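Students often ask why we bother encoding 3D structure as a string. The short answer is that it lets us treat folding as translation between two languages. Here is a chain of 289 residues written in the first language.
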Amino acid sequence: MEELELERRASSHDTEPEVLEELSRSISWRVRRAVGWNPSTPVPVLRALSRDRVQWVREAVAGNPNTPLDVLEILARDPDGYVRSAVALNTATPESLLSELSEDEMVEFDTTNERLRYIVMESVAKNPRTPDHDVFRLSASQSDDVRAAVASNPMVPVEIMEKLSRDQSWMVRYRVARNPVTPPEVLGRLADDRITDVRAAVAANVKSPPDSLIALSRDRMIEVRRAVAENPSTPVGALEALSGHWSFLVREAVAKNRSTPASIVERLSSDPDPSVQKAARERLRGRTA
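And here it is in the second language, the structure alphabet:
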């Protein structure tokens, strides 16, 4: 319990700099790692921790947005791939380093999905500061995971998003559908995707076209309809129809949706299902408070 308390203090933004310095010398690498992640940690302490013998501590420093450039340059060449990956994810990392790391071919075997993962390249692909020419190159990677990482980048150029929306991998198309910067016309096409998870992602995206949301509100899969019911951009007519759906999960989502008109919420406050009743009544209380 004492170690957990020290780790909590090491993670707190309110912890005094001198206390963080003291905690950075803890015998527990977990406490030192927490200090390394803390954006309030003084730069001299980050410099010291960047030389820590434990890779997870160095990884924390590599991901800290306040880590100075010269330290990031050193950590970008760290022998451990997870440390380099943290540098690649850090939004403070300059474009020159990101370009260098975009060619890092360190791989790890993903036991869950039974395939190799290029973890550094994936991290570079996700970073919104990665130069466009590197994003273009990574979008053509043979790795589904790297292309999926590009598709999740909030600064990815429209032409790349357009290309990835037609990718053979459903995981890549799913990331495109989830991305808040994906153009409505691309989302509209993905609304007809054969994979349920992709359609559900379109149904949840606030930029999806109204016509697509209306069509998805009649989807054969309940998870898609529920996502439509939760989307604040869903047209009122579709919410009205979904408020009478046989699944309480869909009706509950309609009741919780801030875009649902009061008249529908009031009707749902008398729904036969307790969960739907509760959600609707909480909405009504919030409206009248």
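Translate back mentally: The mean pLDDT is 95. Keep this in mind for the problem set.
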